């Protein structure tokens, strides 16, 4: 029973890690993005290409952009593509269009993210580079997401700042105590000198 409990505990820890959640979000967004790209390719770009090809070739565009390897097979006087061996140039061109669209969008996303990251680094200079290095180190040590590592880093910075402030307060209190003791000694010495002076006057 304990082993089962530990297993589910480890599984819960695994699925709640930042990297797994980020990957899940990426898969969902990627699926939705693929549908958008396919829609743009099939319902907007492909009809335009078909129309342009039809203007020059006079057929149905990419639908008939095929090269038969041998004699085509006819069924009821119509070419049966399912039984024929051919190269489907239309599908190949559509795949190229989809690839170029996805590559372009990913390029724009990466380019934008790189510019944002560079702007942040330029704004903070060496401090940003040092923070980034520490956060990467924390991510590697703990196997967590960037946000979790950043939170750990912020917590460590806050603890360090609190410790430095406590040490500074303690040092100030110690210096004040030493100053008070020195002042008391100086007053005692002054009083002693005055007493000696008074005794000398009496003699």
Gist?
The protein has 5 helices and 4 strands; from the N terminus they run ααββββααα.
Query: Under CATH, the topology of the domain at 2-124 is which?
Result: Non-ribosomal Peptide Synthetase Peptidyl Carrier Protein, Chain A
Q: Helix/strand/pairing class, anyone?
A: mainly alpha
Q: Which ranges are low-confidence, i.e. pLDDT below 50, for 5 or more consecutive residues? A: none
Using only C-alpha atoms, the radius of gyration works out to 39 Å
Tell me the number of strands: 4
CATH C-level class of the domain at 2-124: Mainly Alpha
Distance between the termini: 98 Å
What is the count of DSSP helices, taking H or I runs of 4+ residues? Answer: 5
The CATH architecture assignment of the domain at 2-124 turns out to be Orthogonal Bundle
How much strand content do the residues show? under 5%
Percent helix range: over 70%
Mean pLDDT: 76
Describe the global form. Answer: rod-shaped
Taking the sheet with the most strands, its summary is: 2 strands, antiparallel
Please characterize this protein's 3D structure.
There is one protein chain. The protein has 203 residues and is mainly alpha-helical. It has a domain at 2-124: Non-ribosomal Peptide Synthetase Peptidyl Carrier Protein, Chain A (Orthogonal Bundle). 81% of the residues lie in helices and 5% in strands. The protein contains five helices and four strands; from the N terminus they run ααββββααα. The protein has helices at residues 2-15, 18-57, 89-124, 126-142, 146-202; strands spanning 66-68, 74-75, 78-79, 86-88. The chain has a two-stranded antiparallel ribbon with strand order 1-4. The chain has a two-stranded antiparallel ribbon with strand order 2-3. Helix 2 packs across helix 3 (89-124), helix 3 crosses helix 4 (126-142) and helix 4 (126-142) crosses helix 5 (146-202). It is rod-shaped, with a radius of gyration of 39 Å. The termini are far apart. The mean pLDDT is 76.
